[in-house]
Amino acid sequence: MGLVQKVLTALALWCLIVNTREIAACTAAERGALVAFNASINDPYGRLSSWRGENCCSWSGVRCSKKTSRVIQLDLGEFALQGEISPTLAALTDLVYLNLSQNDFGGVSIPEFIGSFKMLRYLDLSGAHFGGPVPPQLGNLSRLQRLDLSGSQMITVDNFHWVSKLTSLRYLDLSWLYLAASLDWLQAVNMLPLLQVLHLNDASLPATNLNSFPQVNFTTLKILDLKSNTNLNSSLPSWIWNLSSLSGLELSSCGLSGVIPDELGKLTSLKFVGLTDNKLEGSIPRSVSGLCNLVRLDLSGNLLSGDISVIAKTLLPCMKQLQILDLAANKLKGNLSGWLEQMASLRVLDLSKNSLSGDVPASMGKLSNLTHLDISSNSFGGTLSEQHFVNLSGLDTLILSSNALKIVMKPSWVPPFQLREVGMHTCLVGPQFPTWLQSQTRIEKIDVGSAGISGMLPDWIWTFSSSLTSLNVSTNNITGKLPASLEQLKMLTILNMRYNQLEGRIPDLPTGVQVLDLSHNYLSGSLPQSFGGNEFYYLLLSNNSLSGVIPTDLCNMVSMEVIDLSSNNLSGELPDCWNKNSKLYIIDFSSNKLWGEIPSTMGSLNSLITLDLGKNNLSGILPTSLQSCNRLVLLDLGDNNLSGNIPKWIGDGLQTLQFLRLRSNQFSGEIPEVLSQLHALQYLDLSNNKLSGPVPHFLGNLTSMYMHNPEWDTSPFTEFMVYGVGGAYFSVYTFSLRATYKGEAVIFRKYYNRLTSIDLSANQLTGEIPSEIRFLSALFNLNLSRNHIGGSIPDEIGSMIYLESMDLSWNDLSGSIPQSLTSLPSLGYLDLSYNDLSGKIPYQDQLATFSASSFLGNVDLCGAPLSTICLPNNNNKHFDTMTYLCMMLGFASGFSIVWSILIYSAAARKVYFQFTDGILDKLRAAADIKLHTNRMLAGRDLSIPTGSQNSITRYHFGGPSTAAWRNIS
Ligand SMILES: *[C@@H]1O[C@H](CO)[C@@H](O)[C@H](O)[C@H]1NC(C)=O
Ligand SMILES: *[C@@H]1O[C@H](CO)[C@@H](O)[C@H](O)[C@H]1NC(C)=O
Ligand SMILES: *[C@@H]1O[C@H](CO)[C@@H](O)[C@H](O)[C@H]1NC(C)=O
What we know:
Elements: H1 3-19, H2 28-40, E1 41-42, E2 62-64, E3 71-75, E4 82-83, E5 97-99, E6 122-124, E7 132-133, E8 146-148, E9 155-156, H3 161-164, E10 171-173, H4 185-189, E11 197-199, E12 223-225, E13 248-250, E14 257-259, E15 272-274, E16 279-283, E17 296-298, E18 303-307, H5 308-315, E19 324-326, E20 331-333, E21 348-350, E22 357-359, E23 372-374, E24 379-381, E25 383-384, E26 397-399, E27 406-407, E28 421-423, E29 445-447, E30 454-456, E31 470-472, E32 477-479, E33 494-496, E34 515-517, E35 538-540, E36 547-548, E37 562-564, E38 569-573, E39 586-588, E40 593-596, E41 610-612, E42 617-620, E43 634-636, E44 641-645, H6 649-653, E45 659-661, E46 666-669, E47 683-685, E48 690-694, E49 718-723, E50 729-733, E51 737-741, E52 744-748, E53 757-759, E54 764-766, E55 781-783, E56 805-807, E57 814-815, E58 829-831, E59 836-840, E60 860-862, H7 881-892, H8 897-902, H9 906-939, E61 952-956, H10 962-968
Parallel strand pairs: 3-5, 5-6, 6-8, 7-9, 8-10, 10-11, 11-12, 12-13, 13-15, 14-16, 15-17, 16-18, 17-19, 18-20, 19-21, 21-23, 22-24, 23-26, 25-27, 26-28, 28-29, 29-31, 30-32, 31-33, 33-34, 34-35, 35-37, 36-38, 37-39, 38-40, 39-41, 40-42, 41-43, 42-44, 43-45, 44-46, 45-47, 46-48, 47-53, 48-54, ...
Antiparallel strand pairs: 1-4, 2-3, 49-50, 49-61, 51-52
This protein binds 2-acetamido-2-deoxy-beta-D-glucopyranose (3 copies).
The site of one 2-acetamido-2-deoxy-beta-D-glucopyranose has 4 residues, from loops.
Domain Disease resistance R13L4/SHOC-2-like LRR: 214-437
Pfam families: LRR_1, LRR_14, LRR_8, LRRNT_2
Membrane topology: Single-pass type I membrane protein
């Protein structure tokens, strides 16, 4: 950037300096100023050690004018000076050049006296840790040609008035300053007719309509860099196309929208174009064919559409210089045939995350300068072989993931390259582990997850590259054992081998491991007493056959955020050594054989979001210390032997709780009223305990079940992601909830905003169904079955319009089935059996989709779908005597009612069959819908933002308690 210009500036200065070189003796006043400066500054590296003797003109960083002997240059850049700048420096009134960059002045303001250096042409204070507002006196530097204040985020600029007075300025860099209040920035910059370079990178520029700007003065601008000012929110302004000298245009992450106009082609000097991460749409204009000097074209992360081969063939005629082509994350179509091999100068090609298709041509192997190739997440097909890589000797990064590519190399192939990263996730690489990888001895990251690999891993995988940091071989059919120790892989941070068929024990780990995912294998034996180092974030060993106790070492792992040991054979008591240093968000020890009481030290885990200890043999009462876990969203202690009352502190302390599952324990007593204070509670399962007392009226106070909060469309749970190769990530722990729904045990694997449920079944509850239940109109599952609930079904139940599953069976309910039940449009499961309900079933609309089994065991119920006929005296006045007679006839002869009627007329018969066919279709449709909803529930995908290259990133989804999660991180 600006190399030519830098050289020119340097040359000019050199001339100046050579001219003045004849060492003059400096004036006493200036020498005194420099001595005072030296005295007040801290010089830890002794860079000013030459500042001795009389002639200050020979001191390092100091230059004087030959003619006047006055100091004209002070070049103290990267001297690592600290502390205060003595105001005596103001005596250097003839300064032309002042460089104090890359020092640490500890946030003090830029000295005002700099504004008095009338001769100053060059001022560089970048990265010098100045702070506060820029002194407006700088506006007096009318000769200034170059001003660089970049890199000090503590500097604020309230307005650009002072900038507008710097009319000699050619170079201005205010990157990373805080310019949010500078509404006049563009007007001020427009007063600088000589400006050639403008950097305002990541400077919090205020929302500016770039288009409302009349006419540019700075027509000689060469570099325009406004990157990462996300508030600009404009379309590409037309005045840019008048900047005919422009060679660098960097407007990435500026919130730009609209199309890229044809005028782009007018800027024939362009070498670097960066427009990434905006909302630009439409196609890439054909006029790019005129940009023969392009070296880097980066348009990734937009909404650009069109056919890539058309674009590429347009670019081709003058494509001699293009080294970097990044069109990733757009909506481009087309294929790579007929153009790719002609882009001979390419070093970096990123076409990932588009809709490109077809084969990858073998002629790709001619791109001998290629170092970085990413075509992941497209629809490429066909086979890649040695041919594709024949001349790619400089290739460093190869990312092919998420394509239907088959990668077939001869086992003897020795690639011409040495990769650092390879991603072949969801390509067909197997059945053998690729042997050519063994030659890649400098490799750092390997992703061959879901790559159809089976059989044992080769032994060399653990030794061939000592730089291996990340290995993902998940979701293959890999068998065999892991080595006893992986400690030789000193750089390893991420090991993901989940969903394979590995046996044997968990190996000893090197100390730097951050993520270990060996879940869903056949590992056995006990957990290691120690997990290597303290760097662990995620330990995921669920769904194996691990046995023995949970080691206390886990309590000491201060970085750990997620531990999932669920679905193993772990036994013994829970460790009782948890402490407040913990950052644990998720503990899942469910489905093991743990026994004993829940240790009280678990109450110190006050970051916990999820505590799942379900399906174990835990006993005793809940420790009151748990009330300190006041960020809990999901508490699952179901399927244990816990006893005592449901503690009142749950309602007082766990205010963020959304999912409470205490099912299948020995809890007794009444349901405490404080539960109604849980304003976030949307899932309450207390089923199969020994709870007594009436069904509580305060259920009606559970306000989070009143309506679906649209903000809950995405999970409030923190998604814990690990980034591997390229943009590929995997989610280490997702929401999971064991539920009983529509009469079946299901596991909801994805958070679902309509997971609103009350299950109090199989207790000893009495009383009546409270009519307040009508407020819970967002409820989708209600199960009060197997209690001693009496009274009638409240008519208000019809207002719970989202209800999909309702089970009131095996109670003492009496009276008739309320007509309002027919208008529950989503009801897909209903069980009212074995009560004392009576009267005619209102068998119409939604209720007509249920079979007799929903109503069995109510002796006084009658009418379809039951075979019990409603007698006229049995509040049924709709049948005339004739019909009734016929019905009795039919009934007596063992046929259905309708059949009997059909005896009368052929027309009626026809109608009947149409009707039954219709019913069948309807039932089939209903079944499909149910299947569909289930899949939706189980498989609903959360949208994942693209981005960060960090190896470990957490994404926080919006939701009712998002603020809390943000605070946690
Ligand atoms: C262009 O620059 C000159 C000199 O700095 C100034 O007087 C004039 O107002 C500027 N024009 C615009 C449109 O800002
Ligand atoms: C490849 O890179 C080298 C070194 O940078 C360069 O000299 C050569 O011209 C490039 N090849 C092509 C075809 O651009
Ligand atoms: C593992 O092998 C089984 C049986 O050959 C096959 O059905 C399954 O799809 C394979 N799984 C993977 C992840 O390759």
